[in-house]
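Table S4 entry, NAD-dependent epimerase/dehydratase family protein.
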Amino acid sequence: MTSSSSPDSFHRPTVVVTGANGFVGAQVCHALVSRGATVRAVVRRSGTAPAHPDVTEVVGDFTDESFAAHAVDGADAVVTTVHPMGSDRDVQHEIGVVGTTTIARAAAGAGVPLLVHVSTAAVYDRSPGAGDVSEGSALVGDDANDYSVTKRDTDAALAGVDGITRVLVRPPAILGAGETSVWNTLRPAGMREHESQRHAVADQSFPWVHVTDLAALIADVAAASIPTSDDVASGPVAGECTPVNVAAGPARVADYHQVVADAVGVSPVWDESAAWTGRIVADRAHGWGWSPQVALPEALDEVRSGLTEV
């Protein structure tokens, strides 16, 4: 007698991950493999995808329609992680908005049932007095910075792609070790080298999540460990576009800023000005069964130890 849970009956989902060599993308690949998925790692340079027997590197430009169609053919889900943060607005729009929408449409056309997009909590208006931010909160206006605006526009473009379930994962500051990590590597380097980057408002909120916890939610959705639902409180709504905030416990800018300043050997400069003091509400993610495993002291110790070694 053959059990329904026998190896022959077990389906290993195939998940396409764009930006698989990036800070978040690489962690998502590892999380997916640990959940029994096989990964098609889309990268632009050969030899840069995570090395693992269950990860297949696919080299090309997902903004190209024919390549996108090839990359997603036969997949069970697509995870998009690429956004050229720091580039000018035209480049961010072309790759973030146009490119992400291109592969989303290719996935819908190929019958892929699910797309998970790594958005950002920076799409929300977090001006002083805005209060707590949930998935239904107001978004930034056109006068916001290029990153926030183009990420907002990417979310809006994906909302217009029919025929596929879309999940917009919105993390705040992402902590975790990595050469391209903004908060563990790039911001500390800026504070070390530029006096202007040592300024901060101590009591301003510092919403954050660790990259491994972020990757865990993304992988759980992409590998269908979190199934679709008809109620947004318990899972992504099938066939719809569902945003979900992913944030750990509360923190202040001073918690992060002081650790970095001490580690790189500079003195922080505390400014007196109005600042956002709300929180990113992640009740929806918790309702889906997600719970962060990395606490703030552990995350900051990782920042400290990495900078001290450097």
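The chain has one domain: 13-172+207-247+276-292.
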